[in-house]
């Protein structure tokens, strides 16, 4: 029998929504489902009870060096320029992170110029001939004292693991600077969707070839899939009924709070690497630029159980994932894409890029990368 849809896409976050839009624009009929009552996945945003735009699943700050990704999403939103800045609470001080010249001078009561900071870091670093873990990365870059003050405690809270137990790529995401640049990201394109992520996703999915069904679990359609092909963006181990055991994921608990003051903190995010139970506090108005009475913040508490947010990057987990990937490669009519399906610690732009690459492949297109 003829299937009513060409593609069933599981998950209405970035991966699923980008694939749905690209395939629909190419004339394919798409059914997009999500078990949650909204589109946008973890990037979904909405107004709280007091009218402040918040991110229920924690702050999402868009940044990319990929012109294609930026231009593609720009077809569904106007952008608001925003450069994210973060402070870390160390003792009684709030210091720029990533570590820069200001961080070093304030922390140690110094007055170093750029060359002086570079020389200081060279003196305190602990050179490693082989970089295997995140601990190797940090010690090789900034030495033991800065590691203890900024990285060790934060990592233990965030991942439930020591730096020595995490792959090197986790710590490598945070650079060290000798100048006064206090931007958290240095990408070419740093913007927020002017009317929010949810509006951007609504525009992306407003195509007559796309049907969206929310509050719908994949299990409800799995026995009789109403499409010729499937694009799956959920946890890959779930798809295969945990045949080889569960892949480890890290979850988060969010404590949202509305505040009567117009501003709560000086920057968008403050990290708490040491004493507190939470890892960071983010103030949403700093990110969105919204002008309204009151403000809204969120505290993040990493958890071992709950919805999967972060694949845990360790060699043994990668080996387990490879076993599932072998099964996925044998599924001729199913494509796997996204942070959970590919078990990758992707940023938003990397998910978009992977999804664009997948649809290019499906549609037989060769696209020049910029």
From TrEMBL:
<dbReference type="Pfam" id="PF03275">
    <property type="entry name" value="GLF"/>
</dbReference>
<keyword id="KW-0274">FAD</keyword>
<dbReference type="GO" id="GO:0050660">
    <property type="term" value="F:flavin adenine dinucleotide binding"/>
</dbReference>
<keyword id="KW-0413">Isomerase</keyword>
<comment type="similarity">
    <text>Belongs to the UDP-galactopyranose/dTDP-fucopyranose mutase family.</text>
</comment>
<dbReference type="GO" id="GO:0008767">
    <property type="term" value="F:UDP-galactopyranose mutase activity"/>
</dbReference>
<dbReference type="Pfam" id="PF13450">
    <property type="entry name" value="NAD_binding_8"/>
</dbReference>
<keyword id="KW-0285">Flavoprotein</keyword>
<dbReference type="GO" id="GO:0005829">
    <property type="term" value="C:cytosol"/>
</dbReference>
<feature type="domain" description="UDP-galactopyranose mutase C-terminal">
    <location>
        <begin position="149"/>
        <end position="345"/>
    </location>
</feature>
<protein>
    <submittedName>
        <fullName>UDP-galactopyranose mutase</fullName>
    </submittedName>
</protein>
<dbReference type="InterPro" id="IPR015899">
    <property type="entry name" value="UDP-GalPyranose_mutase_C"/>
</dbReference>
<dbReference type="InterPro" id="IPR004379">
    <property type="entry name" value="UDP-GALP_mutase"/>
</dbReference>
């Amino acid at each position: 029998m003829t299937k009513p849809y060409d593609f069933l896409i599981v998950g209405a976050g970035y991966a699923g929504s980008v694939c749905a839009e690209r395939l629909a624009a190419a004339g394919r009929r798409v059914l997009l489902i999500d078990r949650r009552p909204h589109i946008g996945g973890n990037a979904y945003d909405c107004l709280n009870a007091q009218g402040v735009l918040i991110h229920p699943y924690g702050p999402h700050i868009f940044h990319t060096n990929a012109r294609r990704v930026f231009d593609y999403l720009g077809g569904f939103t106007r952008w608001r320029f925003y450069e994210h800045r973060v402070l870390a609470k160390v003792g009684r001080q709030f210091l720029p992170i990533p570590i820069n010249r200001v961080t070093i001078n304030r922390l140690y009561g110094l007055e170093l110029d750029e060359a002086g900071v570079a020389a200081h870091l060279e003196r305190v670093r602990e050179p490693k001939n082989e970089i295997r873990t995140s601990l190797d990365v940090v010690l090789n870059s900034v030495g033991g004292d800065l590691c203890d003050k900024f990285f060790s405690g934060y990592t233990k809270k965030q991942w439930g693991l020591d730096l020595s137990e995490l792959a090197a790529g986790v710590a490598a995401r945070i650079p060290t600077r000798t100048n006064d640049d206090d931007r958290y990201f240095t990408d070419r394109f740093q913007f927020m969707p002017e009317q929010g992520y949810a509006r951007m996703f609504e525009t992306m999915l407003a195509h007559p070839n796309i049907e969206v069904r929310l509050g719908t679990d994949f299990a409800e359609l799995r026995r009789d899939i109403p499409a010729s092909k499937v694009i799956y963006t959920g946890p890959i181990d779930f798809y295969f009924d945990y045949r080889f055991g569960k892949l480890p994921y890290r979850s988060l608990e969010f404590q949202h709070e509305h505040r009567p003051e117009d501003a709560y903190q000086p920057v968008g995010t403050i990290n708490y690497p040491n004493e507190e139970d939470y890892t960071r506090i983010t103030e949403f108005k700093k990110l969105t630029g919204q002008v309204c009475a009151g403000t809204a913040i969120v505290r993040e508490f990493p958890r071992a159980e709950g919805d999967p947010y972060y694949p845990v990057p360790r060699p043994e987990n990668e080996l387990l994932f490879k076993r599932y990937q072998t099964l996925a490669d044998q599924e001729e009519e199913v494509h796997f894409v996204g942070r959970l399906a590919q078990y990758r610690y992707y940023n938003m732009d990397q998910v978009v890029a992977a999804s664009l690459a997948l649809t290019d492949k499906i549609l037989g297109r060769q696209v020049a990368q910029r």
